[in-house]
Design brief:
about 400 residues; alpha+beta; 3 domains; five-stranded antiparallel β-sheet; 11 helices; about 35% helix
Length: about 400
Amino acid sequence: MPIVRNFVNHASSQGLKSYFSANDGFDQVDWSKEQPEVASKVIELFDHQPADVQIKITLDLERIKHMTDEVGQAALLSTFPDASELLKHETAAERSLWVFQSHRDKFRQAEDIRYADQYRHGQKWTGYQVEASLPLHNDQVSMDTFKSKIKELFGLGEKVKIELFDRVQPDEDGNDINVVQVMIYQEGLPDSYLEFKGDEDIVSRIRRPVSEHAITYSSDTGTIEVVAAKQERRDTIAKAFTEDLLKQPVTADKVPLRRFDLMPLMENKPLDWDVEDGIESVQLVLMKIKDLAGDGRVQIEVPAKSNIALHEYAREHFGEQNPLSTGGFAPVQAKINIRFHPENGHGRGKVLPVKISMPNGCDLRSRTDKERLIGEKYLKRWGLLEEVQE
């Protein structure tokens, strides 16, 4: 199997020993030999293992390999208050293997962190906003209530497991913020599949797959982020979390759950307005976007005092490699200038700059009531803001 051979050929002798010596069938390996000889013997013995042993080893190494990229390594590091011991291992594969072997609970927690971070700002993610500084109620009664509601909401299997842990998460400026991550595991509806029994007989087996959902919550910012496959499920989870663990009742005066979406700004569509609001012009002046294939970021900003549109500016400077149209980038921040007609027809009109940062940052909160109402009216119209109500 390619993944096994690739891993064995690139791992150190000590790393191979730490994993394979714990598996039956590899006692013939002389771990004191040079790495190429050790690797060759391990592969030879692997090829003669029963099919179920080969499958187990392959699945283990796939999990280990999955945590060797940048997202996985950051997740592993975040599970250690003091990462000095982890960093003694020189390669990503060695670090991933060491945590898998020596700290299995931390490895699974890192997988949960990776799940939440990998899909952040993607199609499986939605961010919400509630009032800041709301305490999280994780007492047994609150957790049992939340667990029971999850069972009822999705109409899946009876088995539900909730896990909660503290971690840090980077905000859009690269600063670490403290969050609580909640993992929801729920048994799915029964499904059937076929498998061989012996060489000739084919039998039907029943399985109950487990679905997983992730929530992160920052009390400091009032940010709730949910990762789940379906939008309606994310909205439902966010509501249940707010009601049962933040103790915010669903009443008319509750702070609505909100989510921002900057994807509409990736297209060159006009940002219209109503004449009666006294607006003279609306201009998108800044877009900060991130590379979906890595951690790189690009900021596009139109020159000061220029009337050129941002999309036109990007086309002129990037041509066919325009990151706004390649499909390889996602927006994380935008700035829109709303210019009003001058009062009494004299002088220059006031400019209302609106800065939006994913997942739910917006500087309108610090503005006057009138400016905030105007701004939020158009953020909704342009498809950048939605309030999730019952």
